[in-house]
Structure formats: structure tokens, C-alpha cells
Amino acid sequence: MPSPGNNRRFPFFNRLVLPLIVPALILLVWQVLSDRGFLRPSILPSPLAVTRTFQGMAASGDLFSQLKVSLIRVFEGFGIGAALGTLLGLAMGLSPRLDRALTLMTGLLRPIPTIAWIPVLILWMGIDEGSKVTVIAVGAFWPVLLSALQGVRGTDPKYLEVARILEKGRWEALIRVVLPSALPSLFTGLRVGLGIAWASVVGAELIAASSGIGYMIMYAREVSQPDVMLVGIVSIGLTGLLMDFLVVQLERRLLKWNQAGKESQA
Known about the structure:
By secondary structure, the protein is an all-alpha fold. 83% of the residues lie in helices and 0% in strands.
């Protein structure tokens, strides 16, 4: 079992250098195989070729314009899905009767993959922005709903009993006891939901779109530009990593008490 002291002894290495070792080795092997002719550029360009394409698309603004379209869709859909998931999850957690009433419905709909809704929503809503935003909202809805529900259920009964003893009203107990207890679980759901929302917009754009990062990848495939395809894929990963990082930083700022508890247990 690793000692916590080792992590404190080399913070720079563990946080910055260690996560880069495996990606650096993969890129090195990839470049060597490309230079030796083992990889065909028409199928898998070298990392240097992809980097040059990335720099060119970034300098021209084409890459960022496509990312901007996708990000707007994600923020709209994620905002709707996360808000609905939070409200319904809290309501189901606070009301066992509502939870039982919706158990069958949620059990039937939750296992359906988000991408399976794309053809149906296109049929109902067309190929405009509404169908894409709805797909993203559906993808973000379920993890946030389940996290909010589990967060409410995980509230320590002792805290609720103290609230009753102090004669706190139902709304005050909800705001001061239930919500703070549910926030760590809710933030986990928001992180998962944001990742699914980002993946959902790419899937929707691959099928029906005239702009966005998913459309850029599909168009590059049709015109045989593997370097542009890889630029799009790398951009998706980097953007998703950045969004997750921002959510984690927001969680640490808002839930300092939770972070202090984790550090004390380490």
C-alpha cells in the first residue's frame, strides 16, 4: 500500500511529470514508427504532421470556430439536463412516494443509450439546433438525477434529527442540512453528466449537422484528411479535460469543508 508521505515528498513529479510519461512514450513510438515507414500517412499521420495541421487550423481560426459551435450546444443542453436532473433527483430523494411512482419509468428510460435518441429526435424536431440540444440534455440528465437522488438518500439521519430538535422548518432543514450533504455526490454527477453531454454533441453532429467539431471530423473523413480527423479527436479530448478540470476547481472552491475532510482522512 503506497504511503501518503511519498506523494507529499515529490509533489511536482507526481502531479505534473508522472501523468505525462505514458502519453510521451506513446507519441515517441508513434513518431518512430511513422519515420520508419511502418505507418501509412494516408491512414495514420505522424504526430508532427498532426501538430502542424493543428497549428494551421488554430492560426486560421477554423478549429476554434467549430469548437465554439459545439460548446454553445453543450452548455445549453447541459444546463437544461443538469437543472432538470437536480430538481427531480432532489424531489425523488425527499419524497419516497414520488420515488416509487417514477421507479418504473426511470428504470425503463435510463438504460437507453443517448445516441439511440438521435434518429427519433431528428424525426420529431428536425435537424435544427433543438434536436441536438435535446440529445445533450438527455445525456446529462441521468447521471445528475442519480447523483442528486443518492446524495439526498446519503444524508446522515443524525443531522436531520438535530434539525428537528432545534425546531428547524422543512425548507430550512433542506437548505442547511440536505443540500450541503448532497453536494459532493451532485458534483460527481455533474462531472459525469458534462462528459456525456460533450460526447453526445459530437455524436449528434456526426449524424446531422453542418457545423461543429463532430461535423468537422465527418467531413474530413469524406475528403480523406486523416490529419484533420485526428486534430478534431485531440481537440475533443483536450476540451473535455479542460471542462472537467474547471468543474473540479469549482467543487474545491465551493466545498472546501469536504476537501478538508478528505485530506484529514488521507
